[in-house]
Amino acid sequence: MNKKAFIFDLDGVIVDTAKFHFIAWQRLAASLGINFTHEENEQLKGVSRVNSLKKILEWGNKTITAEVFQEKMDQKNEEYLDLIKTLDTSDIMPGVHNFLLELKDKNQPIALGSASKNARPILEKLGIKNLFDVIVDGTNVTKAKPDPEVFLSACSQLGYHAHDSIVFEDSVAGVQAANTAGMISIGLGEKDILHEADEVFNHFTDMPEDYINTLLNKNK
Questions:
Q1: DSSP secondary structure string, 167-178?
Q2: E strands, 57-138, in order
Q3: What is the pLDDT of residues 25-77, one digit of tens each?
Q4: Which of 7, 49, 109, 143 is deepest in the core (most CB within 10 A)?
Q5: What distance in Å separates the CA atoms of residue 183 and residue 167, rounded to the nearest whole number?
Q6: Residues annotated in a binding site for Mg(2+)
Q7: Catalytic residue positions, numbered
Q8: Which of 38, 62, 86 is the last residue before a domain boundary?
């Protein structure tokens, strides 16, 4: 059987934490007198916490000191961590768990490639951390998507070349990162937004039967 490196983003692919990010960012923005919308939150998908806060300040035409900037970064993370305490196995995105189990059954290597610095505790709460051979997250990469560093690091740690890697992403920045790396990009979400991906599905449950074997024979 062919083998590929299967690399998954976290937020919006494995688990729906977008709602928690939105609430945390909205509260932070409000504390700075900035109105923060769902549309703006969409633009922060796949973007690091530092760059997300910079964007919010830019949208609100606000300037803060480096000290306050760090305080707000910490505030957002504390809010987010408090919100995700309620996470459990029911929060896994539709079809993901079965897809991961099927990959394991086929002895395919699996990695997480996420900008989140909270990836490990989230995977533990979901009860699926043991399904990942490699976890690359915001604690061990320095460049945010659309830079492909997180995905290149993941495939390297799995022992695979980029052209033998498949990335599952829900953000434009993530799809662009996968494409830049020369990896197959599978988008999860709306086709009109993720049109740069090689293929797009709303959910894993929308993928055709035996799709993993199709991917194993697919080249960029």
A1: EEESSHHHHHHH
A2: 110-113, 134-136
A3: 999 999 999 999 999 998 888 788 899 999 999 999 999 999 999 999 999 99
A4: 7
A5: 7
A6: 9, 11, 169-170
A7: 9, 11
A8: 86
Last residue within a domain, chosen from 61, 86, 111: 86
Pairing between β-strand 165-169 and β-strand 184-188 as defined by DSSP bridges: parallel
What value does the CA radius of gyration of the chain take, rounded to a whole number of Å?
Answer: 17
| Neighbouring C-alpha atoms within 13 Å toward the C-beta of 34 | 21
- Going by the annotation, the residues of the binding site are 9-11, 25, 44-49, 52, 76, 114-118, 145, 169-170
CATH of the domain at 37: 1.10.150.240
Predicted structure pTM score: 0.85
Residue appearing with tokens 């977008």: 18
Q: Are residues 138 and 95 in the same domain?
A: yes
Backbone angles phi and psi of 79, in degrees to 5: -60, -45
